[in-house]
Amino acid sequence: MVTFTGIALFTKYLAAAALSLAASIACAGPAGVYAGVSAGATRFEELDGNKSHFGAFVGYGFNPAIALELGYRQHGEWNYFGTDVKLKETQFSAVGSMALSRNLDLFARVGYGYGEIEADRAGYRGEGNVDSAIYGIGLGYQFVPNLSSRVELQKPASDITSVTASLVWKF
Which positions make up the signal peptide (predicted)? Predict the structure, then answer.
């Protein structure tokens, strides 16, 4: 069982790691306004298997090392003992990046997620929401100055894991 203290301590360590990563001199993340689209797979531990997800995000890079992002993601639809369950999420996070080579960078994220859960069983519908800490790590590759891609492993909640591929356009 994971305790709140354990999650808080892990979140503090992850935030410190993200800030250390962002403080690196050699960074390659996007500076200025950028936007992107994403697709991937989400696994919700209590529900049946992986489901496809898609989303979009916008961000602002204060410099090549630190950015803030706002994103929206549709995580998919699961069946839980005859009940259809849908999960949607809005995220706000800080992203820190560090160059590994000329076009390749490592990034980490830490932030806040607001999840909306909808359940439908035989015409009866229920809704709920959940707040959670978000953290993730990934690699970004810059094709040309205004177009890059990302691959990321993200934990939008303690019992949810997602793997995402994204395209990012810098304005």
Answer: 1-28
Q: Say how many residues make up the chain.
A: 171
Enter the tokens of residue 153. Answer: 């492993």
Q: Tell me the two tokens of residue 26.
A: 């050699």
Which pLDDT tens digit goes with each residue over 52-87? 899 999 999 999 899 999 999 998 788 878 888 888
pTM listed for this prediction: 0.77
From 118, 141, 136, select the one nearest 21 (Cα to Cα): 136
Query: Based on the number of CB atoms within 10 Å of its own CB, is 64 exposed (0-12), middle (13-18) or buried (19 or more)?
Result: buried
Domains in the chain, number:
1
- 3-class SS of residue 47: coil
Q: Report the C-alpha gap between 1 and 5 in whole angstroms.
A: 11
Domain membership of residue 66 as a residue range: 4-170
CATH code, domain with 14: 2.40.160.20
Q: Is 65 exposed, middle or buried (0-12, 13-18, 19+ CB in 10 A)?
A: buried
